[in-house]
Amino acid sequence: MEHPTGSSLEPHQTIHNPTLQVHFTWHKWKAYISDVSNPSIPLYIVDFKAYKKRCIIVKSADESTTIGTGTLHFVSINPDYEIHGRKGTIKALKRWKTSYTHLSHAFASSPDGPPATMTWTSSSDFKTWDFVCLDEHQMPVAKYTANLWGLNKIGKIEFLGPNATSEAVRDEIIVTGLTLTYCMILRTTSLLSFFGAVIAQPGPIKNNQSSEAQQAVVEAHASGSPSEAVGTSGQVVS
User: Which residues pair with 123 in a beta bridge?
Assistant: First the structure.
């Protein structure tokens, strides 16, 4: 009688998505981003500016290289960013809902091709505020979970899908994700941002892509989908 092989008896292996943690230091007004498996070694350092100019500056661990910046505005609800010299805008798709879009070079189909249209949505509960980035097919590629009650451990960033280990993707998600989070925190506390939402002109960013990709984003948000949370398996869930 044949016996089952050892591999067939192995339990189902859980695939862990690459995840970074964000640790904030109040006396320096900086955040240190590191891998959850090795939290003592920072990969990025984020400098928060909150006075004359509201912005974030994302640098390499030794602070010798600027990865990117995110700039907030006192009235406009559309923050700007720059990643490795490329400038862009995170544009609101809705006035009163966390629904944003940006054009991604990291997720472009080819290095010389047009940027991909990405979408940001969110969900929240009493403890956390999740910001989920979706690709052109409305599949989740990253999730930033902000800890609403954390004094030092203020969040974590989970990367999903086939590009989860890409350094270009990691740089882009960190810059755009933290910029959008900072923007939404400002919107919940600023009267000027309230008037900015009133006068805003929400909608997709013009892109040289096919109209089908743009229309997919518009239709998805007009119908109230996709769901605003994402599971650890990388699938959007209700």
Answer: 130
β-strand partners of 49: 55
- The token duo for 75 is 């009235």
Which three-class secondary structure state does DSSP give residue 233? coil
Residues in the chain: 238
The type of residue at 26 is: W
The radius of gyration of the chain's CA atoms, rounded to the nearest angstrom, is 19
| 236: pLDDT strictly greater than 60 | no
Which whole-number Å values give the CA distances from 100 to 21, 103, 129, 221, in the listed order? 23, 11, 15, 10
pTM above 0.85, yes or no: no
Q: Say if residues 129 and 148 touch (Cβ distance below 8 Å).
A: yes
Q: How far apart are CA 186 and CA 117, in angstroms?
A: 25
- In sequence order, which residues have a C-beta less than 8 Å from that of residue 181 and are 6 or more positions away? 129, 131, 144, 146, 155
